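User: Assemble these into one structure.

Assistant: Restating your components, then the assembled model:
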Amino acid sequence: MVVGVLTPEELEKLKEAVDERKKLITTLRGKPWPMMKKLQTLKESQEFVEKYEGALGRGRGRKLYAYKVMMQKKWMKFLRDFENFKTACIPWEMKIKDIESHFGSSVASYFIFLRWMYGINMILFGLTFGLVMVPEALMGRPYGSIPRKTVPRADETSAMDFAILWDFGGFAKYSVLFYGYYNNQRTVGWLKFRMPLSYFLIGVGTVAYSYMVVIRKMARNANEQGGGDDTSFNFSWKMFTSWDYLIGNPETADNKFASITTSFKEAIVEEQENRKDDNIHLTRFLRVLANFLVLCCLAGSGYLIFFVVRRSQKFALAGLENYGWWERNEVNMVMSLLGMFCPMLFDVISSLENYHPRIALQWQLGRIFALFLGNLYTFIIALMDEINLKRKEEEVIIANMTLWQASLYNGTLGENNTTPVITVDPADVPRGPCWETMVGQEFVRLIISDTMTTYVTLLIGDFLRAFIVRFLNYCWCWDLEYGFPSYSEFDVSGNVLGLIFNQGMICDERAAPARLHVPAVLGSHVLQRPPGAVFKASGSNNFYMAMLLVILFLSTLPAIYTIVSIPPSFDCGPFSGKSRMFDVIQETLENDFPAWFGMVFSYVSNPGLVLPFLLLMILAIYYLHSISKTYKQSNLDLKKKLQTQNEENKKKNKRAALKAATELEEARNTLQEQQSQSNNNASNRGDRRLNDSNGTTNQIENGHTAKNHCRPPYPHRCMDRPSVPRGPGMPGYLPGLPHRPAP
Amino acid sequence: MGGSASQLPKEQLAEYQELTFLSKQEILLAHKRFNELTKDERNPPTRVPMDKILALPELKSNPFRKRICHVFSTSEVKDGSLTFEDFLDLLSAFSDSATLEIKSHYAFRIFDFDDDGTLDGGDLEKLVNCLTGDTDDTRLTQEEMRQLITNILEESDIDKDGTVNLSEFQHVISRSPDFVSSFKIVL
């Protein structure tokens, strides 16, 4: 079909039609039509677009238009290929799908979470490695050139011992892994790489990046969820969403059936019990008792850690060589063991409380959280004590340094100003106690011992247990697999918690000056049963994200405190010699940026400006919070309105139906009377009467049909309201009414 | 169109990619698995009977497998048999990248056992029986069943007409955090 010259309006309309068709093509896959229909529509739309796209391009800029269209097509193809490539590249995708089919999606959600955290840790490690470790290793002074980079003479003989290396002493201590190795030169190498600035910024940057990533994920999840109240559809969700379609294993399916049945029964029973609550006082008393016991536990564990750290200080003062393995690793072992046994204790105590399982789980998680935080903070406070000790030591050593230097120049005191520089082997220079490295070492040791404990408990607790159960079952009196001790369930929530705590410790250690990234623990979950209750741990659950955020925040607090308030050591690390670590920023501003920049910066960081800004943010948060409350309220109001409207409609329809029925009855009666009358007077009245009665019957029938129009199969209200366009989804069309599905 | 040719022509592959949520590899894998269902026959038909589809390991343990076949089948005799294109439709609706709307639409149709466009008490009862398994000790009692259905209708039936229709169903489902991730089938 040849299209002649088109007027601009027609051109516009044609363009709109073509765009509409193009949009239809892109949204075809989201339409619930059978494939034949989709193919047909696709072919039609594509033909239409091809035919008229040429026409559109006629006249001005045809070549350009055709070129644009071709580029668009190529771009879509490229995007599609890229999507395919990306999905093929996701690590462990096949394994996770395997797990999903065997164990269901809630277990797989733990591994998806694990993978996500692994990704983040890899990125952070890459940043640190590339921008801090590599420049210092390649462009900084080599090992052995300055005192801070050399193993002291006294320790040289033992520097290569495995025991010392395992403890992160010896050569491990004097390497790029730890803070103390870094030189405080402002720039290194021919690139003029600003080492101290980079160290500081990367430290701050990694923490900021972690926060940003977690918050972004939380926001995305909140958007997806719609943010409504999540317990109002309890039963419906159990009904419609509890089956996991990924299950391909008949054993898993049977487990799933059993768990769904139990959850239905439990929910029904609980619903009934909520209606009656007996003996509220006993329950309350028991709950208070349980909380008191838990508080005692927490206090006890805090004190234990404090005591143990003090003891380890005493050991250190007396010299570690005199003590065996236990004394050297006491602190770490105690912390790990506490982390293992206290949750079990909390579990036992919570049986007193008699809560709904989900609420009980939340209490349990909250308590474990408090335990972890208590332990971490006690540990940090004890570390602070040690830091103060080391700083006092440092002052003593600084005083001694001057004496020692004087002793070097003993023979040459007679010279005046130009004293020759005496070269001393770096290994012989007396060393200050580098508290930053010490803190780093402590954290690294803690993380490693935690990992080891987890592995060991997994081995003993789960693997061995499963082993025993499987093999002893043949010759034991009761069925070990169903009764005690049975296989252990895959505790998704516990494992996710462990992951989050690990991340918190790593964050702390990163913010503190060690540079080791220990990847998250990957236990072996081979012989564990999939969990009965559905517990999603994936990123779709904002509860775990929120916990991660809180842990990150609380872990970085001590680090920030140390950066801001404690002066760095005088002879080790990239900030040595400065009075505060963040002075490096000041230095950079003065030396590397133009003068006006420094002025602007000082204005912006004025408290007079920062405080009103903070106030504004708080007000904004309050405003958003109150808006969300009003939205929820209006939602509820709309629902109620919908319900009352429907009820009203039903009532009115009933009334109308009744009225019509009575009228029909009356009309029938009058018709019968008239017919009998006309039969009686048939000869006299003749056709006239018949015509009359026919007329009346016609009238009546017309009346009926008129009324019938008012009573269509759908209980609409008519004649009382102005006519409004009606269609599915439009206002005025009531939901819940059977209508023909859209073509 | 699937059955006899052992290779998918390229334009058709591109069209299927355009019309479903599946990637190229997934479509090719689906083609392979579909052909395997009829590989023993000399003249493989384009339409595979329902019992062969139900033998697929991904569907074998699913309590809704028969309903799934009926919903996606385009056969005139309503016997649940699927062509390759029906199979692709099935995989697309259950794929990872499918939208919530399309998943909830098909979920509604799957749960609508009597195909009348709404979920009434009878549909819900059959649904519960499917979910609780076939053995006697896992089945719910009559009393429990009644209580359950009342609770569900109380929650989801906004206009109180005694049935759950598509928009009410979609409203409930859109609030659920688990639906999209559990309503998945992957080959």
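Chain B touches chain A through 75 residues (CB under 8 Å).
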